[in-house]
Amino acid sequence: MPKFLEWEDVNYKLKAERGLHSAEHEEIIAGWTTDIYFLRTREILQRMGKLETEVTAEISPSKSGLFAGIEEALALLEHTGIEIWSLPEGEFMEKGEVVFRLKGPYGSFGLYETPLLGILASNSGWAQAARECKLAAGDLPVICFGARHLHPSVAPVMERAATTGGADGISCILAARMAGEKAQGTAPHALYLILGDTLEGALAYDRYLDSEHPRIVLVDTFKDEAEESLRVAREMGSHLEGVRLDTPGERGGVTSDLVREVRARLDQEGFEKVKIVVSGGLNPDRIRELAEAGADSFGVGSYISGARANDMTMDIKEVEGKPIAKRGRVPGITENPRLEKIQGEK
Q: How many degrees, rounded to 5, is the angle at CA 90 between CA 107 and CA 276?
């Protein structure tokens, strides 16, 4: 079992060469990312000989939505030996529903309240946002492009939660590797800007990259998107799988009229099989609108990565088997037949 953070450790001097400000796994497990008052509570109970008091605690969300983060939560708590019940990963939860229950000595898990709530709240918020996008897209693919909008230490967590919500693919290399998938994406504006021409960039991509990489070409870098789509399609022929529209807001963004025009012009020249991929500032409403106009796939970034966490609350409901609760809560265990035991004696 790892060593818990103790009160005297608070004055520990961090390494001067620490470059990134993110917590290391060992620091999270040790309790360093908790709120200070949980450490003070631990110190007081330890001095009073009450650190091993058995309690039952329950966690509930502030709003309805998708529940996610179980794998990380269990990893945080697996060495504690406590009993854990949980709603299954990816299940819909109601506001105020008990989604997670812990039972055991308070000293075994009390220090983890802050990171545990953060894990469940953040993952659930990201998963719900992804689910909303997927529902809007229907059978059309949704790829999560949100890693660039988050601190890199949590980008893989967000993208994994996006897959729980129904995203069909993710772009972050590490997230995909951990999920046993291949990261999805083609080439950014940088390639075309450096080469100075959309068609030259498309041909270079086709020439130098392995055939397993989809030939989807970004067509909004220099000229009219419909014109560039046709230039690329005429030159690449059957090699071209799709064109991507990522028109910046300064140019009006990707509109339904633009998608319809590109689709019509491609079809008129016999390129019906060329897909239209759209990205840039997408949300469920825009996804529905662009899908109706003829878009075939969606790259969604900040709507998922910037989703507000579904705030979670943890309440002690039993102490030494006796019902108890703070004001405003009903004392005793709240029965929920949907909970499944995931740790401890069955």
A: 135
Residue 319: CB atoms within 10 Å: 16
Q: Which amino acid is at 116?
A: L
Exposure on the CB side of residue 152, measured as CA atoms within 13 A: 5
Q: Are residues 147 and 246 in the same domain?
A: yes
User: 184 and 88: one domain?
Assistant: no
Residue 239 lies in a domain: yes
Q: List, as one string, the DSSP characters of 288-302.
A: HHHHHHT--EEEE-H
CATH number, position 227: 3.20.20.70
How crowded is residue 90: how many other Cβ atoms within 10 Å of its Cβ? 16
Closest CA to 160 of 183, 186, 134: 183
Model confidence over 156-206: pLDDT tens digits? 999 999 999 999 999 999 999 998 999 999 899 999 999 999 999 999 999
Q: What is the pLDDT of residues 94-147, one digit of tens each?
A: 999 999 999 999 999 999 999 999 999 999 999 999 999 999 999 999 999 999
Which tokens hold the place of 141? Answer: 């693919």
Instruction: Please check whether residues 33 and 97 belong to one and the same domain.
Output: yes
Beta carbons of 106 and 46 less than 8 angstroms apart: no
The structure tokens 């709120």 sit at 35
129 found inside a domain: no
User: In terms of DSSP bridges, do strands 242-245 and 216-218 run parallel, antiparallel, or are they unpaired?
Assistant: parallel
The rounded radius of gyration (Å) of the Cα atoms in the chain is 25
Q: Which amino acid is at 336?
A: N
Picking from 184, 303, 285, the residue whose alpha carbon sits closest to that of residue 242 is 184
Q: Minimal CA–CA distance to 67: which of 161, 155, 168? A: 161
Dihedral over alpha carbons 158, 160, 165, 169 (to 10 degrees):
110
Residue span of the structural domain in which 259 resides: 135-305
User: How far is Cα of residue 305 from the mean position of the Cα atoms in its chain?
Assistant: 6
Which residue from 298, 200, 284, 302 is spatially nearest to 245, judged by alpha carbons? Answer: 298
What distance in Å separates the CA atoms of residue 190 and residue 56, rounded to the nearest whole number?
54
Cα-flanking dihedrals φ and ψ of residue 164, to 5°? Answer: -60, -35
